[in-house]
Amino acid sequence: xxxxxxxxxxxxxxxxxxxxxxxxxxxxxxxxxxxxxxxxxxxxxxxxxxxxxxxxxxxxxxxxxxxxxxxxxxxxxxxxxxxxxxxxxxxxxxxxxxxxxxxxxxxxxxxxxxxxxxxxxxxxxxxxxxxxxxxxxxxxxxxxxxxxxxxxxxxxxxxxxxxxxxxxxxxxxxxxxxxxxxxxxxxxxxxxxxxxxxxxxxxxxxxxxxxxxxxxxxxxxxxxxxxxxxxxxxxxxxxxxxxxxxxxxxxxxxxxxxxxxxxxxxxxxxxxxxxxxxxxxxxxxxxxxxxxxxxxxxxxxxxxxxxxxxxxxxxxxxxxxxxxxxxxxxxxxxxxxxxxxxxxxxxxxxxxxxxxxxxxxxxxxxxxxxxxxxxxxxxxxxxxxxxxxxxxxxxxxxxxxxxxxxxxxxxxxxxxxxxxxxxxxxxxxxxxxxxxxxxxxxxxxxxxxxxxx
Length: 453
What we know:
- It is a single chain.
- The protein is built from 17 helices and 10 strands.
- It has 453 residues and is α/β, with parallel strands linked by helices.
- The chain has a domain at 12-36 and 43-103 and 336-401.
- Strands 3-2-1-4-5-9-8-7-6-10 form a 10-stranded mixed sheet, sandwiched between helices.
- Helix 10 links the parallel strand 4 (203-207) and strand 5.
- Helix 4 (47-59) crosses helix 5 (65-79) and helix 4 crosses helix 14.
- Residues 1-10 have low confidence and may be disordered.
- InterPro entries: RNaseH-like_sf, Transposase_11.
């Protein structure tokens, strides 16, 4: 019996629900149910049908939420014929969604993340690190009075309510890793600090200049993780000897803001890396990129590897594009705060499973050179599978999945090719300020070093 189960675990699933069960395993369901007390009587909408139907609703087509619900419920019933059927009405489904605890959905996401971690294996590590890109984006919500009160005003005056999404992306593969939701005015640095617990000890956190902050860097080092942040003119760095930015390639610096010095706190030893501009052609880096990291040894993290990791950070933007445009979550449908947060949580889980099951199925054992699937092609095949639940069967899902590989086109044009009326034109960050320590600062530094030693 044990050998039969092992063989079954090694076999490639042939249907969509088979792939979903690779991540939503019985252990994951048990883990999610264990965070809340068990009811005496089973509700009409248990956790499993509630989540699976919401995942299918995220993937399915339809002109309205109720139409997508009918398709998703029909797909669930077709895949679980021997189980108790859930409720029939969309109103009842929404009531059950509102009652579902968010901590249960977060436990479910943590279980799926563990499954992805196990299936990636050694492929999650590149050059000794697990590069994790972090970025944020706003998701628009309906203009209901409750959402306007609960989510507050963000962005321009009279703008629609927004949910702020901060997400970690596994940069070598482009897979969504973990996320945190908040109102449109939420602080993304605070979100990142909450998400540190979802990262492995090998993680290298890659962020743009907006995330730079002394308290955040201290928090990252406090949990023994590493960082690679882009620098801007808002950051002041210090050297022991006189140095010029014009001649800088890489070297040790001290991150020691003025307010930190006034508080009597010690500086953080870092390494500043300069990635020079490569030319003036389309898609070329037109300005120097300045990167700061806590990895002081160039043999462990070379300038070329740091440049590669930061170049991969654009895959965060690719993830947001997939979620907003391919999954069509540029605007959420829920009309209450409870529904909006649950819709966002489960639609992100649906995006994660969509990317993970196809990417891991088509990725070779040693491939770590970027995403290998087209999310749009995978979504089309998923919709065919959902429609086939109530229609004659089409070709096997596993065979159709093999045709969802991404193209090999290289980027030759700028990533931003047009101006959007609701966005400010992007201006590349300027170099950081590089200063030489004064005698008073050197004395204060020696005092900190003697206290630490």
